[in-house]
Amino acid sequence: MMIYRFVDDMQGSYHADDAAEFQQSVALLQQRFNIKQLKTTTWMLGMRITRDRKARTITLDQELYVSKALEKFGLQQCRVVSTPEAVGAAHDANPALDKPADRQRYMEMTGTLMYAAISTRPDIAHAVHYLASNMQAPTQRHMQAAERVFRYLAGTKALGLVFGSRNGDTVGDSRGRRAQVQVDVCAFSDADWANDKGDRRSITGWVAKLNGDPVSWSSKKQRVVALSTCEAELYAESAAIQEVLWLRGLMEELGLHTQTGSTVYGDNQSAIAVRQGRAHEACGCQVPFRDGDGGARRRQAAMGAHDPAAGGHLHQGAGRAGV
After folding, report:
1. Confidence check: pLDDT of 38 > 80
2. Do 194 and 311 belong to one domain?
3. Residues 33 and 75 placed together within one structural domain of the fold
4. Cα-based distances in Å from 240 to 77, 205, 252
5. What is the maximal distance between C-alpha atoms in the chain?
6. What is the C-alpha separation between 109 and 153, in angstroms, rounded?
7. CATH number for the domain including 315?
8. pLDDT value of residue 106
9. Residue 55 falls within a domain, yes or no?
10. 157-184 pLDDT, tens digit each
11. Of 182, 69, 58, residue with least CA distance to 116
12. What value does the mean pLDDT take over residues 129-158?
């Protein structure tokens, strides 16, 4: 039995055998606090919750949130676009784009987009990262980029996250009444090397999945300057591995079994060579991996070495790293 709370919003989750105990807990809360128990949840923190009992899936979307945001910024009748970003727009040499923009409006637009990006729209995470990195002195270039993201959302406002698509009839019972299944934890990572022409720092991007459904993602600038695409990709994979290890620990706390190994996927050939022990074909035999506290340590790049500090086993594979 679990109770999730965010400020004054609470959501309960419990096993069918614990229904009576959950109601007792709710009654105790009602005696102490002025709370109201609603029926089946359909809205939570601006997200619509849609259940498909037959398919055993749950969908989260922010269609209403996006619609209100478009109306707030006067973009409800805007022309929609098919992508959240335009290739090369950040480096357009038009001097008119360097004129200052309305900073207050820009900050409000970016903040609105940021909540959508961290809640149900990982497809705009990279674009929002770019917007958030230019909050101090936004120009017309940045304002156009922010408006483009809204124009993209206007045409895709009904999109959301679907959970349970791979569950089917294989959902395990933690009480042991049915065969316990193993949760598949994996991640996909990528990097945009030397993306920023000012400081030459690369962009890390990754998405972590449980049973094929995205549960966490990130797009952020790396803290150090990578000297090659290989190094940038390995920094990104390191960040993805950290998230996978955290998710595996969370599954263990919830009483769910995870598969023996988790896979982190990457597509850089040099990084693949490093993981296969062919470091002489890539960028070197020593690769810095970032610790959770931001420090750096050196360890062998051969992905077959056991790392006691990480608590996992990194094994080699074509195009992927196992945890």
Report:
1. no
2. yes
3. no
4. 39, 8, 19
5. 68
6. 13
7. 3.30.420
8. 97
9. no
10. 999 999 986 653 344 455 555 556 678 9
11. 69
12. 95
Note whether 84 and 149 are within 8 A (CB).
yes
Number of domains present in the structure of the chain: 3
- Structure token pair of residue 260: 């023996």
**Cα dihedral sign for 120, 125, 129, 132?**
negative
- Does one domain contain both 282 and 217? yes
Q: Are 50 and 58 in contact (CB under 8 A)?
A: yes
Residue 37: predicted pLDDT: 77
Q: Do residues 193 and 313 both lie within one domain?
A: yes
In contact, 60 and 161? CB cutoff 8 Å: yes
Domain assignment present for residue 161? The answer is no
Q: What pLDDT does residue 294 have? A: 39
pTM (2 decimals)?
Answer: 0.77
C-beta atoms surrounding 273 within 10 Å: 17
The pLDDT, as a whole number, for residue 292 is 41
- β-bridge pairing 9-13 and 257-258: unpaired
Q: Provide the domain limits for residue 307.
A: 184-322
**DSSP element (H, E) containing 59:** strand 57-61
CA distance 3 to 133: 35
Considering only CA atoms, which of 320, 305, 318 is closest in space to residue 244?
Answer: 320
Which of 22-31, 222-231, 239-248 is the most confident on average?
Answer: 239-248
* Closest alpha carbon to 155 in 221, 225, 63, 276: 63
Beta bridge partners of 61: 48, 160
